[in-house]
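Predict the 3D structure for this chain.
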Amino acid sequence: MLDTYNIVSVSGGKDSTALLLLALERGASNLVAVFADTGHEHPATYEYIEYLSEQVYPIRTVRADFRQEFERRREFLRSERCKWPEEDRERALALLQPTGVPFLDLCMLKGRFPSAHAQFCTRELKLKPVYEHIYRPLLEQQPLPRVVSWIGVRRQESRRRAKLPEWEAEIGDIEGGPGLFYYRPLLDWTVEDVFAMLKKHGVKPNPLYLQGMRRVGCMPCIHANKQEIREIARRWPEHIERIAEWERLVSGVARKEGSATFFYVAEPDGEIHYRTHGIKTVVEWAKTGRGGTQYELFAFDPEAPACSSTYGLCE
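Done. Predicted structure below.
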């Protein structure tokens, strides 16, 4: 009899939580729930993953490990193949040590932060670790089992996702038999459907959704909007300070010293440097109104409301 394994990646967000609950509702066989820890999450998300693991279903945590990549990078900087000026090489070598924080380590290896045009974070910090720890061992089994990857994307989210099929084969035949398959059962769901699924099972949402966050993966995400950046700076200024320190570290190992900023600078007014274009400058911009030149009178009240939700969860 063919073994079937069902894999659900859980981020701590609303969609992946609803996806896990749906898999349990449907009695998915050999269910594996996995959380890819980027080291760049809010403490509330880590607590929420623990809550889900205890109250809903055990969740396995995996992390990317870049220690070997650091050694290879250091070897390159010492070699004749590296054409950097000697001073820049010595600067980078002095800082290029793994921190054990996957997101920061990856950025130090790249000498930059991810952006919409170079979103290497998802691939390196989530997809690869989950594949190596979960999918690869299953796909190396003999005989090959049927492995179904449940993906919690919705058409409502973007034009690209609106075109995705419900089922897709990476290896094998969708109609039956062994292989690796992608399953997207939430494609036609709305945000309301997602939160209704959590409510149906008595599962509370990630508390960050009640504190002004539109998304909860990474703190902050490189795609955070103006309102989210403002809210993060107001509620959790320590995360802004952490990112500022990361900008300093990544800039120190970049080929052009000082050039690494957490948020992509589309139209720089002069030379890009983290001190002038970094996270703290972005926070000041987030306090302004449309046009980014004048501060809004009520946009940055230092006293955060007890509950603030993009999704109407405070009502």
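Residues 67-110 form one domain.
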